[in-house]
Task: inverse folding
C-alpha cells in the first residue's frame, strides 16, 4: 500500500519536510516512490505538485493526517471528495 506522507530533511532545529509517495513498510527516511511537494513549517510555505498528488490518490494512496490537512488547505481534495 502507498501513502502520501512527510519525509524529514534539513538540519537540526530547522526541519523541512518533503511530501512523498512511499510504501507503507518503509522508514520515514526510506526510499520514496516520488516526491510530490514540500512543506516548511517555520516559514509556513508549501509547494504541491497537484497532478502527481491526484495521480497517486486516484490509484488508492492514502494521505497521512498532516498531508491531508495540507492538501485540504490547498483545496486539492475537493475534486476527489476524499474524507480522512
Result:
Amino acid at each position: 500500500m502507498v501513502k502520501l506522507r512527510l519525509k524529514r530533511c534539513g538540519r537540526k532545529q530547522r526541519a523541512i519536510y518533503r511530501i512523498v509517495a512511499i510504501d507503507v513498510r518503509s522508514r520515514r527516511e526510506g526510499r520514496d516512490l516520488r516526491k510530490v511537494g514540500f512543506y516548511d513549517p517555520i516559514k509556513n510555505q508549501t509547494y504541491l505538485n497537484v497532478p502527481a498528488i491526484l495521480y497517486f490518490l486516484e490509484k488508492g494512496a492514502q494521505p497521512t493526517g498532516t498531508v491531508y490537512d495540507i492538501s485540504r488547505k490547498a483545496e486539492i481534495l475537493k475534486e476527489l471528495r476524499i474524507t480522512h
Q: What stands out?
A: The chain has one domain: 1-81. The helical segments are 50-58, 65-73. The chain has a mean pLDDT of 88.
